[in-house]
Helix-turn-helix transcriptional regulator (Gordonia prachuapensis), 101 residues
Amino acid sequence: MSPVRRGEKLPIYNRIGVLRAERKMTRAELAETVGINVQSVGALERGDNYPSLDLAFRICAVFDLPVEAVFSRTEFGAMSAELYRRPDLRPEPQSDPGGAR
C-alpha cells in the first residue's frame, strides 16, 4: 500500500525556473518544446500545479537531467552549494612520533 493516503497532497518542488535561466530559455520556448502553454510553465515554476509523470519526463529531457535533479518532495538548496561542496576540512589524525603501542 502506498504511504500516501488518498486525497493527501505532498508538495513537489522544482528547479525549472533556475534551469531555464541558466540556459537563457524563455517560458514560451520551454512551453513550445514540451507542448504546453506558457501559463502552465509559470504555474509549474510557482508550484501552483504539479506535472504529470509524462510532462516531468519531457521537461527533464529538455534539460538533459534526471527527474530527481529537477523535481523533489523536499525543497532544493542552492545549486552552487551542491555543486561546489568543499571536502571535509577536519584535520587528519596525527601519528604518534614515539611509536607508542
